[in-house]
Amino acid sequence: MATNQNAEALYGFLKATTASPGSSDHIIGRALQTIRAHLGMDVAFMAQIVGDTIVLREFDAPGHEDVAVPGDKTALEPSFCSEILRGRLPNVINDVAADPIARNLPVAVKFKVGSYIGVPIMLGNGEPFGLLSCLSFHPDPTLNERDLQTVKAFADLVAFEIDREVRTHETDRAAVDRIRRTIAKRAFSTVYQPIWDLTANRPVGVECLTRFDDAEGRSPATWFVEAAESGLATDLELSVTHQALQTLPQWPDFVQLAINASPQTIVDSRFSGLLDAVPPDRIILEVTEHAVVSDYPGLLKALAPLREHGVRLAVDDAGAGYSGLQHILQLRPDYIKLDMSLTRHIDVDRARRALTTALVHFGEDTGCALIAEGVETAEELKTLVSLGVGYAQGYLLGRPLDMGDAQRLFTDGGLRMPGNISV
């Protein structure tokens, strides 16, 4: 009899799944309640084949809870499961005592099973995962083909849910492996987008951005999202930050390097160590986080020594949502970076101009400067300057460049607006 070769791994995964609404455990539990009540039987359960045993996974038996508990194990040979899979037992047994094979099975003897319906749960790869079953403690001559079809329908539902969870698990596992390989091989590169001082009309720094060696074309944002979902966000951020900081000695002394880090990475003890070997007053640390930070005191504690040594703090994506405004109020940054959703079309949108003006006044009152991101047109740039925004970056002022091209912006011949744009 074929058994599920991945059963142990599946068992571990399913055991770790939280039984919350919408999860497979919740859906399967509801299915068992429904089918048991519909058939008027005493017990409904889902069991999984794990090696040479059958493990009870889900169990519904109002008034008979002492019969078994999830996690109970019995031998696969012999059992209703093994005999049904072999074709030696029918799926519907109206009177177990009258069947010469069924009545001698250990489970039937132990629990005095009177009637039984069992349907194999077949995974998408054709292997049996286990059995969906109902039983009563008395014979039931009314059980028929229609009842069997009902149980089969629920068995298909259970198989679908398990397959879905397995596919999700395999996808997550693949992402973890891919990210770990990328970190180990440093299969990424750093590009640099210039940051312009709009008052001095020259670039004064670069934002370090990451590009991944990815044949499937995943965006950098996708990589960092998958890393966060896989629990590897900090490891990945530390790796790309280390690579970016190593280039600092190759830049002119006046150039600022802006690096991105999430709050989770900043509070990690390894992060501050990365900054020990570089001049801290040349670093702008951009806090990148779209979710609400749950521990501002912890984040402030981690930031304090960095800022005392000269690291300047920027809050990213201001104007894009509630979390950015919370960061501004809680962290009191040196720079506020206006999100491109606020910058885009600011020259023709009164609301965007009003919000930017308010942030400019806030910056003046609190001693922080504004950096506009995503500037793409000369009209947007002129509007930002007229509103008092001091710094900007975007495709108009320079796309992310490799190091050689970015460095040329800071030579005597490169310190000018692209295309002689006048502000």
Question: What topology emerges from the helices and strands here?
Answer:
Layout: H1 7-16, H2 24-39, E1 43-50, E2 53-60, E3 73-75, H3 80-86, E4 92-93, H4 106-111, E5 115-122, E6 128-136, H5 145-185, E7 188-197, E8 202-212, H6 220-229, H7 233-245, E9 256-261, H8 263-266, H9 269-275, E10 283-287, H10 296-308, E11 312-318, H11 322-331, E12 335-338, H12 340-343, H13 350-366, E13 369-372, H14 378-387, E14 391-392, H15 403-408
Parallel strand pairs: 8-9, 9-10, 10-11, 11-12, 12-13, 13-14
Antiparallel strand pairs: 1-2, 1-6, 2-3, 4-5, 5-6, 7-8, 7-14
Helix pairs in contact: 2-5, 5-6, 6-7, 7-9
Q: Can you describe this structure?
A:
This protein has 15 helices and 14 strands. Residues 1-22 have low confidence and may be disordered. The radius of gyration is 31 Å and the shape is elongated. The protein has two domains: 7-171, Beta-Lactamase; 186-420, TIM Barrel (Alpha-Beta Barrel). An eight-stranded mixed barrel has the order 7-8-9-10-11-12-13-14. Strands 3-2-1-6-5-4 form a six-stranded antiparallel β-sheet, sandwiched between helices. It has 423 residues and is an alpha/beta fold. It has helices at residues 7-16, 24-39, 80-86, 106-111, 145-185, 220-229, 233-245, 263-266, 269-275, 296-308, 322-331, 340-343, 350-366, 378-387, 403-408, and strands at residues 43-50, 53-60, 73-75, 92-93, 115-122, 128-136, 188-197, 202-212, 256-261, 283-287, 312-318, 335-338, 369-372, 391-392.
